[in-house]
Protein: Dihydroxy-acid dehydratase
Amino acid sequence: MTDVKRKALEDLRSQRWFAADNMRGFAHRQRMQQQGLDREEFMGRPVIGILNTWSELSPCHAHLRERAAAVKRGVLQAGGYPLELPALSLGEVMVKPTTMMYRNFLAIEAEELLRSLPLDGAVLMGGCDKTTPGLVMGALSMDLPVIYCPAGTMLNDRYKGQTVGAGTHTRKYWDEYAVGNIGRQEWIALEARMTRAPGTCNTMGTASTMTAIVEAMGLSLPGASSLPAMDAGHTRMAWACGRRITDMVWEDLRPSRLLTQGSLRNGIVAYMALGGSTNAAVHLMAMAGRAGLALALDDLDAIARDVPVLANLFPSGDRLMEDFHYAGGLPALLNKLRSRLDLGAMTVTGRSLGENIDGTACEDDEVIRDPDRPLKVATPECPEAGLALAVLRGNLCPDGAVIKPSAATPRLLRHTGRALIFDTNEDMLAAMNDPDLDVDADTVLVLRNGGPVGAPGMPEWGNLPIPKKLLRQGVRDMLRLSDARMSGTHYGTCVLHISPEAAVGGPLALLRNGDRITLDVGARRLDMDVPETELQARRATWRAPERTYARGYAKLYQEQVTQAHQGCDFAFLQGTAPTPEPPIY
Ligand code: FES
Ligand code: MG
Structure:
């Protein structure tokens, strides 16, 4: 970065704590020395927080304490002083009822850690699904210089000669086990497969979608999001984060200088070209809301129409993140999409995105396709088959719903069938084993009360299992609808994020068993064939379900969470109203 106006020492935020020649300053220095630190170690230099979402119940982040050590080396060598701080660890598979309920909790924690402590900048260490938007949302609101250091991805795995991936193949094998094609012993043996190393899911799930979006928005070092966690290069990347953040403090390179309408768009272009997770549609709204940037679901639909899916990764394709890394990773992908990007957008390197990706070669055109040879192509029967995302409207979802056509069955993207409705996830799961369930392959399975308020937390229930009766007949996909989400590692013809959700009186609440539903992705429509007068009559008798929580965080969540199309942030956290620095006394 040329012509950077460097901060003066007295402008460092941490100086307010450590440089004051009064009793408070004395106490701050004294308490650092209590840990065995000499005052020369931390005084007069940028103090860098390392917000670490490591925990022993966050397997994707199992290596992050070691990586924090590498970050510290980098900070020290660049003349800063690093301090590692634990932050809420959201291990996707472990946390119940759903990590989504705690994303905003982490966002609050990240923002307030940065605000309440003597920090000049921070390295954010996360990667498992919600940790990325959570940390970034908090950092956007606090607006200190930060670099996002993604955990890196799991290694590839192969099973019986086939490439197998986290999440995607779990569901495939579960279906085969359910109908007896896989035996008990093999099922148990499979527990040790598909996730064979620390790191985030090796498919294009929510983790890799979000780390890639954040890199494309300029908040990570180039190539960081596709590095395997167990690659020695990942340790070097962590070290480089430490070096670079220290300089960023002197340059005052804050998120508000990086996140612009252009860089937000760059993130969305990456999302679509990767065939990323539908979850990103929610997180992007929330991040844009924190940055004060305009974004609507329809903007995502428009960019999806323009950007072909180029990355051949599960669940849309058949490769894994390690292959994507060998092919050149995100910089190589972005370099194929230059005309669609804001190349002038500034990044954490102090250079523009265009400069960062200049000359990045793609080493494997099968894994990262050229724009004229995308992963999925439109056919005359199904022009939408290649899209990473489509945003639907209709009398079932006036505020929107999403579907990922590239991971769906093309013939179901235009479909009419009768509704079979479940009001709770438990009822739905129990019914799926019922040999007498009144269902056929054309039935539309509906799950409601799975939204942000209803569940609460909008869990990943939206990939409803196929009823066992139909699995036995060879059925592997059906049209499914919900106000819930779906794991980015999953596939199927699932309409998700129906908004407004049933629990707040969205029209989904008025649907009845047997009503005919029509999905037409080409027209971006999702409708129930019920006359408006009948809907009004049903609305007159509708009663809101009782809120599940009378106290605690979940109560706050149900009271404050916004709808899916608004990002599910808490209403009181949105926006850019200034928050004063804490007084020091
Ligand atoms: Fe952590 Fe998939 S479970 S990234
Ligand atoms: Mg996931």
Summary: Residues 157-196 form one domain. The mean pLDDT is 96.
